Amino acid sequence: MNIILMGPPGAGKGTQAEFIKAAYPIPHISTGDMFREAVGNGTVMGQEAKKYMDAGQLVPDEVTIGIVEERLAQADCEAGFLLDGFPRTTVQAQALDQVMAKRGKRVEIALNISVPDDVLLLRMTGRVSCVNCKTVYNTRFSPPASAGICDKCGGELTQRSDDKEATVKNRLKVYMEQTQPLLNYYEQQGSLTTLDGDRNPVVVFEEVKAVLEKHR
To answer: pLDDT tens across 16-35, in order?
Structure first.
């Protein structure tokens, strides 16, 4: 199964990715991990990406796609993959289709986790994490026993700057502007499934599993 996982920040993609990874023998490939691996391994595309990253510039599409192609050619992707954070644009989606076609394969499932903006706002603006052990809490949904103090190690809990309300609203706006054409693209291909992520993650995964089982 070749799967793409989509959804706005705070939708619970990470949780669903963990569930999928535990249930199916396919690698979970996030864009960040892929870049770090390519740069660390000194691959041709990794070296190219490093030039842009060191200069504080965005890595251009052709380099990003080259890194994706290198990663998908690895043996652990033979039985499929779960791609998280790529593609982000229709141009990238078309390039991914070309990469897959070279290998006689295609993207079979585009999973989109949808959550209303007001719920995402509550989820993200309530997020705090421990400065020491990095444990994440939510002041509204899963608060620590003592405000501002980590249950596990007693460390201080802080909020990421990009989880402040004005920043979150802007991130969600940018996400929707960028992603809507991509959702339309996969819908036209007949591979898009949108799931309601405003539920217990275990319930959401039962639905994810039902979608994936149809393609096994």
So the answer is: 999 999 999 899 998 878 88
Contact in structure between 204 and 16 (CB atoms under 8 Å): yes
Question: What's the CATH code, domain 2-26+79-116+177-213?
Answer: 3.40.50.300
* 106 in active site: no
- Concerning whether 103 is annotated as a catalytic residue, the answer is no
From 50, 88, 105, 199, the catalytic residue: 88
The sheet that has 2-6: what strands, in order across it?
28-30, 81-84, 2-6, 109-114, 192-196
Residue 174: C-alpha distances to residues 64, 65, 88, 177, 183 (Å): 20, 22, 11, 5, 14
As a whole number, mean pLDDT of residues 106-126 equals 94
- The pLDDT tens digits for 127-178 are 999 999 999 999 998 999 999 999 999 999 999 888 889 898 998 988 888 8
First-residue to last-residue Cα distance in the chain: 7
Q: How many CB atoms lie within 10 A of CB 43?
A: 16
Q: Which of 36, 160, 164, 209 is catalytic?
A: 160
Of 162, 161, 191, 16, whose CA–CA distance to 93 is shortest?
191
The residue annotated as part of the active site, out of 50, 105, 171, 199, is 171
User: Does residue 71 carry a catalytic annotation?
Assistant: no
Spell out the SS3 assignment of 39-67.
HHHCCHHHHHHHHHHHCCCCCCHHHHHHH
Write out pLDDT tens, residues 45-61.
999 988 888 887 878 88
